[in-house]
């Protein structure tokens, strides 16, 4: 079986128009002695794009960001920002600014002076400093807070100061290293919306590092999913979720049910697979993802695509083993007759859940929602 191609495509945000690259990495590798943190990475990040590097700890996403920022040099390959080669260019001479998770605010300086710090180092005239800091404060909704010290600000307000300090220098690219990680869930969700709106308003390229799948899906135009220093798939949020390239992406982006088995037949894009437990599954193989009769294959179906009942290309009897109330939905774990377990999401209505642990049920889903995965 040949893996679906994961070459990058122009983002949906471009609305069909090609845009120049703000950041380009060509064959970039970063080694720390015998450890390869980033392995032969090639990608382009477009001007005005909200681009996320997503993956588990140790996948190379933060190292990639640090190379763009100039805090690390590539061992091999070429890195360009705004069309200029960056090898040997120190961080303070690059047209980028970085916002860290810790915010790195100066505790002895007030909001105004924190934001003005880079401008003063660049010897910008005092009148222009006042004007630009005022504009930055208005942009992040901190007008009136200019004389407060960081200790008197909430976490969300401190994050806005860090953003304003980065934006006031008018970078070509803003690098964000898990900037919302220290916030509580409610504030983090609010700041996700604010960040996305701010990026749209400014039109600046954002390169965002996160391990939070929902955060990346919410904000990004495109996402590069990384593992072991390599990009597993570079795509839009919708394509990553609906058409994951392989088992890693399918399992990392949201919840999914995966089955493995032998391919019994292939009819165009329609594939029949039999699992070790004896389930006969009808699945869909996207164009470019070839499947050979008699080979082993892996398929995935999202929990929300599964229904209770017998109507569907794949319908199986099972027993409810667990029920978890999640607020807007309820999660069911159903054990099928062959021993495989299936997670099912059901949106909550006014009526109480009508299936409980120990109940015999039928579950079903369509072949179009059962995707053949690459390796």
Summarize the structure.
The chain is an alpha+beta fold. The protein contains eight helices and 20 strands.
Strand content: 25-35%
Percentage of residues assigned to helices:
10-25%
Q: Note the run of SSEs as H and E.
A: EEEHEEEHHHEHEHEEHHEEEEEEEEEE
- Oligomeric state of the chains present here: single chain
- Tell me the structural class: alpha+beta
Distance between the termini: 8 Å
Radius of gyration: 24 Å
Q: Helix count, per DSSP?
A: 8
Main beta sheet strand tally, sense and closure: 6 strands, mixed
CATH level 3 topology of the largest domain: Rossmann fold
Shape: elongated
Q: What's the pLDDT, averaged over the residues? A: 89
CATH 4th-level superfamily of the largest domain: P-loop containing nucleotide triphosphate hydrolases
EC number: 7.6.2.11
Subunit structure: The complex is composed of two ATP-binding proteins (PotA), two transmembrane proteins (PotB and PotC) and a solute-binding protein (PotD).
Family: Belongs to the ABC transporter superfamily. Spermidine/putrescine importer (TC 3.A.1.11.1) family.
Catalytic activity: ATP + H2O + polyamine-[polyamine-binding protein]Side 1 = ADP + phosphate + polyamineSide 2 + [polyamine-binding protein]Side 1
